[in-house]
Amino acid sequence: MLWLWILLGVIGGLILIFLIALFVVYHGTFYTPLKGQNNDFVFTAATEKYCDIEECKSMVKRLVEYPYEDAYITSFDKVKLHARIYRQNSDTVCIMFHGYRGTPCRDFSGGAYDMIKMGFNVILIDERGHMNSKGHSITFGVREKKDAKCWIEYAKKEFGEDKRIVLIGISMGGATVLLASDLLSEKDRVIADCPYTTPKEIISNTLEHTLHMNPKIFYPIANLTSIIYGHTNLNNDDANEHVKRSKAKILIIHGEDDSLVPYKLSKRVADENKDKVRYELFPGAEHGLSYIMDKKRYQSIVEDFLK
Q1: For 117, which of 91, 220, 278, 307 is 20 to 30 Å away at the CA?
Q2: By C-alpha distance, which of 181, 167, 178, 148 is closest to 265?
Q3: What whole-number distance in Å separates Cα of residue 155 and Cα of residue 24?
Q4: What pLDDT sits at residue 150?
């Protein structure tokens, strides 16, 4: 019998090592927040390389200090979510979704301020697991799109059923608003900056081109960790299918030199939905930097689209 107990011990040890290895992958990819993640004044390497950091800090500080109201809702899966509310006398409510491990005041330091100055009501949300929202798993838009539904319902209850809803997102937030686009009516609008189309394609692209790992082998492992520890299967959502069903007009903005989310990942949506999607490419712009690289053109496009 001793050999049986030894065998069971070896098998149990191997399973434990496997589960620990999976958790390390989950922690690095999906767990939130990591140390320092919620600091509004920590910028990406691309931002530091291509942008005037002092100007960026000034823009962030301007929004951080702008007067707002706190708002809290409970998500479909009982997670407490937070947002900043900028209330104005307007028939439009902009709901803004920041990026992966981003902060709303950093990612929308220019965009949210523009919406406020245009006179719109703004709901600047903290994605689940970020800033003052609870939760510890990032799901690349799968659960976040359901959070978007909750924020839309909140906006209509708080500001009125007749208000025009504008969903605005950047990076993962951009994918989220595309995934939620079929919740909207004809009068509503969607603006997605540097979005991807599916969680699988962006994770696979990062594995292949950033980490130099075979996505055919390592993506299933990453998804398995999301299923086990984050209780979310990333294989079952495609923003393009939601856009096809959407009644709203959609603006997609993407930097031509985006090395994190190549513009081809969003171009497919525009090519297959030309009747409802306007596509604007920004030459020379890295990931999430189209606004900074050509602010005047960016603001003009957005203002024209929202008219």
Answers
A1: 278
A2: 178
A3: 38
A4: 98
Q: In angstroms, what is the C-alpha Rg of the chain? A: 20
Can you tell me whether residue 67 is helix, strand or coil?
coil
**pLDDT tens digits, residue range 28-75?**
999 999 999 999 999 998 899 989 999 999 999 999 999 999 999 999
β-strand pairing of 277-282 with 69-74: unpaired
Across 205-225, b (16+ Cβ under 10 Å) vs e yields bbbeeeeebebeebbeebbeb
What span, in angstroms and rounded, lies between the C-alpha atoms of 307 and 295?
A: 18
Which uninterrupted H or E stretch holds 153? helix 144-159
Q: What is the pTM of this model?
A: 0.95
For residue 262, the one-letter residue type is: P
β-pair type (121-125, 80-86): antiparallel
pLDDT exceeds cutoff 90 at 26: yes
* C-alpha distances in Å from residue 15, one per residue of 25, 220, 230: 15, 18, 19
Closest CA to 305 of 188, 195, 180: 188
What's at 271, amino acid-wise?
Answer: D
Structural domains of the chain, ranges and CATH numbers in brackets: 38-198+237-306 (3.40.50.1820)
CB 97 within 8 A of CB 169: yes
